[in-house]
Design goal:
7 strands, 3-stranded mixed sheet, 4-stranded mixed sheet, about 150 residues, alpha/beta
Amino acid sequence: MPSRFTAPRRLLATAIVSLLAVAACGGKDKGAGDRSEEQHEEQHEAKSGAPAASGRVIAINVTTDEKGNYFAPSEIEAKRGDILRFTLVTGVHNVNFLPDSNVGKSGLPPASDLLQLPGQMLDVPVTFAGGTYYFQCDPHAALGMKGHLKVDD
């Protein structure tokens, strides 16, 4: 007895049934999913050796305007566990804690990629020992785009 479905219809029916099965499996309990994501983050932190952020988020705007190129604020006080959140307002900028300008300091983050889209953010966890740290935007350092971070123990 010949089948009612032609090969293209059979393929379409199989695809629809597969999509419905996938959609049905996606409806897991959100609470359980949230817990597994938290556990994944904790495991990642344990593997990377980076401490979990426990302090406040310090907002720093990164801007180019009629005043020039600058970080606002450019003088920052923080504690270990805080997060420095650099947010691009306008322009194209990066953040670099130069080793040669932070002599004797260890654990400096690598120079960031360029922030190019307004609203783009860079989070830098404060894992440094107490002291004062210099940072700059590499393309605009000669124009005065510099800052200092004072870390209190």
